[in-house]
Amino acid sequence: MSLLELVGVNFAVTTALMFLLWLVSITLRDASIVDVFWGLGFVVIAWLSFFLTGESTSRKMLLVLLVSIWGLRLSVYLARRKFGTPEDSRYQAMRASIGPQFWVVSLFLVFGLQAIIMNFVALPVMAGQLDTSPIGFWNLLGVALWTVGFLFEAVGDYQLARFKADPNNRRKVLDRGLWRYTRHPNYFGDFLVWWGIFFAAQGQGSWWTAIGPLLMSILLIRVSGVTLLERSLKHNKEGYADYIARTSAFFPWPPKLRAAAHEKDIRR
Q1: CA 203, 209, 214: angle at the middle one, nearest 5?
Q2: Which long-range contacts (CB under 8 A, 24 or more apart) does 101-104 make?
Q3: What DSSP string describes 164-206?
Q4: Residue 267's pLDDT is what?
Q5: What sections of the protein cross the membrane (predicted)?
Q6: CA distance 205 to 209
Q7: Helix (H, G, I), strand (E, B) or coil at 225
Q8: Which of 24, 43, 100, 220 could form a disulfide linkage to 71, CB 3.0–4.6 angstroms apart?
Q9: What are residue 182's DSSP bridge partners?
Q10: Pair 168, 123 in one domain
Q11: Is 185 left (phi over 0), alpha (psi -120 to 50) or beta?
Q12: Residue 160's pLDDT is what?
């Protein structure tokens, strides 16, 4: 099976699953359930690619495990956070902006778009399943990056969940733990996870699949991650402006050094 055929099969399957999820969202009147499926979608792509590409190798199994551990943890975390809550405010705003036709538009703008993005980001996973090269240096580097990223994302989410569980912290800023060094440790972790998967998938001539983690990086930093979230946090969290001044937006950095640099910029 060629990579083009593998991409075609995965896109067809994930699109069909997104269509079914869209039908459920209409019934629930909640488009934000798509977020819960985000991690699971990659797990589906990883295992489908594994079974469709024949011979099993240690590197192919390694890729499946890395994607599965990341995707299942993320989906379980989001499902627990989502349970019993109304539609996410981002989708509520979109629904209000589009109007009565949102139920139709969401099929393409929310569910269809996520299927497309998912398959682009997963290109290293699919290409890696077609390569039977043995595990080498770049693959081990990928595992190291994935491990650091996974810990950042999982620990960051855990710290945030505990912080939000305390009613006294409502409208307050979490600036302890990993959140002391970066305003978005979970997004930074996601960033490292996908560059780790990219390197873990490298074999012969698949460097071009860097467009997958590159797209994910752009989304996390400039589009649906940091930029979109902070628009609301600046208005809804007390002291968030001060938090921005002393804390790196994405890449972890000692807060005091960040604050000192900020003061120098002001003096200039």
Answers
A1: 130
A2: 102/31, 103/26
A3: HHSGGGTT----SGGGGTBS-HHHHHHHHHHHHHHHHT--SS-
A4: 46
A5: 6-24, 36-54, 100-123, 135-155, 185-201, 207-229
A6: 9
A7: coil
A8: 43
A9: 248
A10: no
A11: alpha
A12: 94
What range does the domain containing 148 cover?
136-268
Burial degree of 192 (CB within 10 A; 0-12, 13-18, 19+) = buried
Q: Distance between CA 262 and CA 266 in Å, rounded?
A: 6
Instruction: Count other Cβ atoms within 10 Å, centred on residue 163.
Output: 16
Alpha helices in 57-169 (DSSP H): 58-82, 89-98, 102-106, 113-121, 123-129, 137-165
Could you tell me if 36 and 82 are in contact, meaning their C-beta atoms sit under 8 angstroms apart? yes
Estimate to the nearest angstrom the gap between the alpha carbon of 52 and the chain centroid. 25
Q: What are 12's two structure tokens?
A: 């067809």
CA 30 to chain centre: 20
- Where does a domain end: 105, 132, 159? 132
- Residue 265, both tokens: 């910029």
Q: Are 153 and 113 found together in one domain? A: no
Q: Which residue has the tokens 């190798």?
A: 57
> Do residues 177 and 88 share a domain?
no
What is the spatial distance between Cα 35 and Cα 77, in angstroms, rounded to a whole number? 11
Amino acid at 5: E
Residue 16 structure tokens: 């069909």
